[in-house]
Structure prediction request, 195 residues.
Amino acid sequence: MTESGVSRRRFLEGAAVVSAGTAAVGVGVVLARDGAGPAVEPGTALRLTVNGQVREVMAEPRTTLLDLLREHLGLTGTKKGCDRGQCGACTVHIGGNTALSCLTLATTVHEPVTTIEGLADGGQLHPVQQAFLEQDGMQCGFCTPGQIMSASALAATRQPVGDDEIREYMSGNICRCSAYPNIVAAVRQACGGAA
Prediction:
């Protein structure tokens, strides 16, 4: 017996009771997944405009816009990088503004979405895409869709920007290959500056 009045035997008996209770709850969860009851919430009907097309899909309420785009709509140009909103690889436009699709629940999207697949106009590349090609603004290419989506939002403002402003605006997009000088040159070109 200790000063608190709890013996080792009493502690172990209490732990055994808690373990048995936890195991029983676990069995209940397994039974629910085997058809005794719903394991997850039912799907929600979503209607979104993506790249100019109205798309209807069923998805769980917790589905992110990134997962909806990639797994339900087959638009894999938007990349899943960190899945925490830190790298910018999943950047898309919602209502003309940049958004991190990995942090956006699909059920909250009510404005048109544009992904990297919807940026070009038919066979004509968007000026930012063309600038990235001409300035060699990519290496492995994994971050490139997010970089281009952020850069195109900046170019759409039609405001003159210097290199420091470009770096600040693009700071939410990480390039693990460190192609930053070429990315800045591409954004500068797309925004109408000298390449």
User: Anything to note?
Assistant: The chain has a mean pLDDT of 87. The chain has six helices and five strands. Helices lie at 8-36, 65-72, 127-134, 144-156, 163-169, 180-190.
